[in-house]
């Protein structure tokens, strides 16, 4: 009987890899192989060196090729698309991980940063870690497919990446770290796409901070795009979250930003 075919799971895994996929769900395996869910689980247990489950609570598996055995899992960017398609949720590679894909690598990242619509714990599969950030209007964020990607992958555009880096600065090491990551992205930023991000996100305070950071970095034309988009009357905002008194903190009049950074000077 087909259900007793001890090679069914292995054949399915090899066929997945042949089509460029390194992930699958238990229902996929059962449907394609003809195995019952119980038989499929049993066969996967016997293939534990070749497959790993993303979490104990999710019947979603990764295929571990010999070259990835030391990491215990394939790179996250190889399977994020399949994983979120299975979840039925939006996502994109974000923040420093997206910046790294564009060539900005000021700091070595140990975690893949992913934007999605719901909070979740850090996903640890082998030595691969994925950290989730939440954005309510995620589907409106401009994304693109990385050049020469091994697998389908959604990634924020350079302009959206820069905006996110400022918006989530406190979660990624502070405004100085965000500015450091944005600097190598500047040659990739385009004025029309930046304006589109401003209109899509519609977050004035974040735009003020990004405008200031671009000004400090010498990207005057891009900073002017933001300045032209901002309303005439602005509310004073701190560059970084304030702790204590506002006294003696310089105000950058053009952006109405309290510059409480020790490194970024206009």
Rg measurement, Å: 22 Å
The overall pLDDT, averaged over residues, is 92
What fraction, in percent, of the residue positions are helical?
A: 25-40%
Oligomer description: single chain
Proportion of strand residues: 15-25%
The end-to-end distance, rounded to whole angstroms, is 74 Å
Order of helices and strands: HEHHEEHEHEEEEEHHHHHEEE
| Unreliable stretches covering 5 or more consecutive residues | none
Shape category: elongated
Structural class: alpha+beta
Biggest pleated-sheet summary: 4 strands, mixed
User: Could you give the order of strands across the largest sheet?
Assistant: 4-5-7-6
**Topology, number of strands:** 12
Number of helices: 10
Task: Output the keywords.
266 residues, alpha+beta, 4-stranded mixed beta sheet, 3-stranded antiparallel beta sheet, 12 strands, 36% helix, 16% strand
Description:
With 266 residues, this protein is α+β, with helices and mostly antiparallel strands. It is 36% helix and 16% strand. The protein has 10 helices and 12 strands. The chain has helices spanning 8-18, 26-33, 37-45, 80-87, 95-101, 158-167, 175-182, 191-201, 204-216, 220-229; strands at residues 23-25, 51-55, 58-63, 91-93, 112-116, 123-125, 128-134, 143-144, 155-156, 237-238, 251-252, 257-258. The strands form 4 sheets. It has a 4-stranded mixed β-sheet with strand order 4-5-7-6. The protein has a 3-stranded antiparallel β-sheet with strand order 1-3-2. The protein has a 3-stranded mixed β-sheet with strand order 10-12-11. α5 packs antiparallel against α6 (158-167), α6 (158-167) packs across α9 (204-216) and α8 runs parallel beside α10. The protein is elongated, with a radius of gyration of 22 Å. The termini are far apart. The mean pLDDT is 92.
């Amino acid at each position: 009987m087909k259900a007793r075919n001890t090679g069914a799971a292995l054949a399915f895994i090899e066929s997945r890899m042949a089509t460029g996929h390194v992930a699958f769900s238990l229902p996929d395996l059962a449907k394609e192989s003809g195995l019952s869910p119980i038989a499929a689980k049993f066969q996967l247990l016997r293939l534990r060196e070749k497959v790993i489950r993303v979490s104990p609570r999710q019947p979603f598996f990764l295929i571990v090729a010999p070259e990835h055995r030391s990491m215990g899992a394939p790179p996250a960017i190889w399977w994020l698309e399949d994983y979120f398609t299975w979840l039925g949720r939006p996502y994109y590679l974000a923040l420093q991980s997206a910046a790294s894909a564009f060539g900005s690598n000021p700091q070595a990242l140990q975690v893949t940063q992913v934007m999605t619509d719901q909070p979740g714990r850090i996903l640890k599969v082998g030595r691969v870690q994925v950290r989730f950030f939440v954005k309510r209007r995620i589907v409106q964020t401009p994304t693109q497919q990385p050049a020469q990607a091994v697998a389908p992958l959604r990634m924020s555009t350079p302009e959206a990446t820069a905006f996110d880096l400022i918006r989530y600065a406190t979660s990624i090491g502070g405004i100085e770290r965000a500015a450091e990551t944005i600097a190598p992205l500047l040659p990739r930023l385009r004025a029309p796409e930046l304006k589109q991000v401003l209109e899509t996100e519609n977050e004035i305070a974040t735009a003020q901070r990004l405008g200031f950071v671009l000004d400090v970095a010498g990207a005057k034309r891009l900073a002017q795009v933001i300045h032209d988009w901002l309303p005439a009357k602005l509310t004073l905002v701190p560059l970084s979250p304030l702790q204590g008194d506002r006294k003696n903190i310089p105000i950058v009049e053009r952006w109405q930003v309290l510059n409480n950074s020790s490194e970024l000077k206009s």
